[in-house]
Amino acid sequence: MLTPAAIHTLIAQLLPEATINIEDPLNDGVHLKATIISPRFADLSRVDRHRLIYQALGDAFAGPLHALQIITRTPDEL
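^ that's the sequence the OP posted. Answer follows.
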Protein backbone atom coordinates (compact mmCIF):
# COMPACT_ATOMS: atom_id res chain seq x y z
CA MET A 1 0.00 0.00 0.00
CA LEU A 2 1.33 3.41 -0.94
CA THR A 3 1.19 5.55 2.18
CA PRO A 4 0.91 9.34 2.30
CA ALA A 5 4.54 9.38 3.49
CA ALA A 6 5.63 7.32 0.48
CA ILE A 7 3.79 9.65 -1.90
CA HIS A 8 5.43 12.62 -0.19
CA THR A 9 8.85 11.02 -0.68
CA LEU A 10 8.25 10.32 -4.38
CA ILE A 11 7.14 13.88 -5.09
CA ALA A 12 9.97 15.36 -2.99
CA GLN A 13 12.52 13.39 -5.01
CA LEU A 14 11.40 15.18 -8.18
CA LEU A 15 10.55 18.53 -6.55
CA PRO A 16 12.90 18.90 -3.55
CA GLU A 17 12.11 22.62 -3.24
CA ALA A 18 8.37 21.99 -2.95
CA THR A 19 6.14 22.25 0.08
CA ILE A 20 4.11 19.06 0.01
CA ASN A 21 1.08 18.10 2.06
CA ILE A 22 -0.54 14.68 1.61
CA GLU A 23 -3.86 14.04 3.32
CA ASP A 24 -6.10 11.01 3.67
CA PRO A 25 -9.43 12.82 4.22
CA LEU A 26 -11.52 9.64 4.25
CA ASN A 27 -8.93 7.74 6.28
CA ASP A 28 -9.19 4.82 3.87
CA GLY A 29 -5.70 4.86 2.36
CA VAL A 30 -6.95 4.91 -1.22
CA HIS A 31 -8.53 8.36 -1.66
CA LEU A 32 -5.80 10.90 -1.03
CA LYS A 33 -5.30 14.62 -1.50
CA ALA A 34 -1.95 16.19 -2.41
CA THR A 35 -1.25 19.90 -2.18
CA ILE A 36 2.08 20.84 -3.74
CA ILE A 37 3.54 24.34 -3.77
CA SER A 38 6.57 24.83 -5.97
CA PRO A 39 8.14 27.64 -7.97
CA ARG A 40 8.75 25.02 -10.66
CA PHE A 41 5.05 25.24 -11.58
CA ALA A 42 5.47 28.81 -12.86
CA ASP A 43 4.55 29.05 -16.53
CA LEU A 44 3.13 25.50 -16.58
CA SER A 45 -0.50 24.80 -17.36
CA ARG A 46 -2.57 22.88 -14.85
CA VAL A 47 -2.34 19.80 -17.07
CA ASP A 48 1.47 20.06 -17.27
CA ARG A 49 1.70 20.51 -13.50
CA HIS A 50 -0.31 17.34 -12.98
CA ARG A 51 1.80 15.47 -15.53
CA LEU A 52 4.86 16.41 -13.52
CA ILE A 53 3.30 14.96 -10.37
CA TYR A 54 2.23 11.79 -12.19
CA GLN A 55 5.81 11.47 -13.46
CA ALA A 56 7.02 11.59 -9.86
CA LEU A 57 4.52 8.93 -8.80
CA GLY A 58 5.45 6.49 -11.54
CA ASP A 59 3.30 3.38 -11.30
CA ALA A 60 1.72 4.27 -7.95
CA PHE A 61 -1.75 3.86 -9.42
CA ALA A 62 -0.97 0.27 -10.43
CA GLY A 63 -1.51 -0.69 -6.78
CA PRO A 64 -4.24 0.02 -4.28
CA LEU A 65 -4.17 3.81 -4.66
CA HIS A 66 -7.51 4.61 -6.25
CA ALA A 67 -7.76 8.40 -6.33
CA LEU A 68 -5.45 11.32 -5.75
CA GLN A 69 -6.78 14.85 -5.77
CA ILE A 70 -3.91 17.08 -6.85
CA ILE A 71 -3.71 20.78 -6.04
CA THR A 72 -0.70 22.60 -7.46
CA ARG A 73 0.29 26.19 -6.79
CA THR A 74 3.31 28.43 -7.11
CA PRO A 75 4.33 30.43 -4.05
CA ASP A 76 2.95 33.53 -5.82
CA GLU A 77 -0.50 31.90 -6.17
CA LEU A 78 -1.06 31.53 -2.45
